[in-house]
Amino acid sequence: MKAEHCLLLGSLCSAISVSSYAFDMLPADFTWMGNGTTVGLAYFAYQDASTLKVDGVGKVPQSDAQVYAGILRAVRWQEIAGYKTVMQTFLTSGYVDKATVGGTDQPDNSGLGDLNFGFTVYPMASNEPTGTTLTLSGYVTAPTGDYDVGKVNIGAGTWIFTPQIGLIQGLGNGFLIDAAYDVGFYKTTDHNGFEVKTDPASQAQIYLRYQPSMQTNYAVGVSKKIGGKQFLDDQYTGMKTDVTQLRLTTTHAFQNGLIATGMLARDVQVEGGFKNDISVLFRIGKAF
């Protein structure tokens, strides 16, 4: 395969990061909500990128992408045999409004994405002002979304297992630290006659949260993703997961039981992918 052909296919088969919204931890996400609590969540997101950087090559001129994403999620907090646990499932979807590489519009697989399942155990859980909450989670992503080498895809095109550790540490006076670290392990698969392989990709997230009341919080945070090199027939495509992102969030709980969260983010460093000038996320949830 020619290097130019491999590079182009690598750019196209790189999934627009819709599923990553679900793994993007938001402040207070690891709070123990009480035995038997069920929360339904809907995510709406938009990302706008005007730069594509290929590892070892640099910026690809006349490249940009605009993507709308949605996620439906159900989460249940449940005590099982004396252990605090969380069971959840979520389905991603997305619409690629524009994807251009080197001035050429690219084909895409918009629509439903991947189905995910998660299970969490709480070794520690505290809602005290200086208390500590620790979570251990595992997620399985099933490749239910369409995927084709040579297209911009919403789905990842393979099975993924993602273990995650989460932390909430109260600092007192309404301040808390929210943090998470996860690693995604990808199954090597064949697509359109090509062997598609992705190295493990990890993500570290941390927020400083200020909670002036039980109903409202504000936070500033940073996310760092590394790894995830992509290969076609053992040839590195120049695409990987190496992103540093800054975030601002706010959450408010309404008297009718609705919980709304907004996030504004910007990528400040990217290697091997699209760099988002702006990412906007709105999430609304309802406890039952």
From TrEMBL:
InterPro entries: FApF (IPR025737). Residues 1-22 form the signal peptide. The keyword Signal applies. It holds the Pfam family Phenol_MetA_deg. Keywords: Plasmid, Signal. This is Transporter. It comes from Acinetobacter soli.
